[in-house]
Amino acid sequence: xxxxxxxxxxxxxxxxxxxxxxxxxxxxxxxxxxxxxxxxxxxxxxxxxxxxxxxxxxxxxxxxxxxxxxxxxxxxxxxxxxxxxxxxxxxxxxxxxxxxxxxxxxxxxxxxxxxxxxxxxxxxxxxxxxxxxxxxxxxxxxxxxxxxxxxxxxxxxxxxxxxxxxxx
Length: 168
Prior knowledge:
By secondary structure, this protein is of the alpha+beta class. It has four helices and seven strands; from the N terminus they run βααββαββββα. A seven-stranded antiparallel sheet has the order 1-7-6-5-4-3-2, covered by helices on one side. A hairpin with a 2-residue loop joins strand 6 (105-116) and strand 7 (119-130). The protein is globular. The termini are far apart. The mean pLDDT is 89.
């Protein structure tokens, strides 16, 4: 069984600046520069104003919840691919797929970036499924929370990057 989720991540920057940052290779290279267990592949298969970001990272053992550690078959690794389309008016659409190694988890969904009175926001909607007998349903909310935390961390990074990058 899978679990549906949705949440919104508010940004204090205009949607045009947010979209430009998210579709810029430099943001993602800077974001992952200090992540020794991460890999990053960035491409633009759909042309200018779009991006495909494929990220993988090994979880630090001390950051893995006890419930998850009990069912791990090997070290916990995360893989996520985001695809962003061009900004059309004040809206850009995207999609994501994520999975883990060490435990059979799959997550997928959509993004919608849009303008707000305070700046912009990212609406996230998706599903997560953890295929572990008995405890999979208990782990699914943890996976959703992790995705929410990661996107909030990216928000903080991108907002800071936009204020410090001379070419942003």
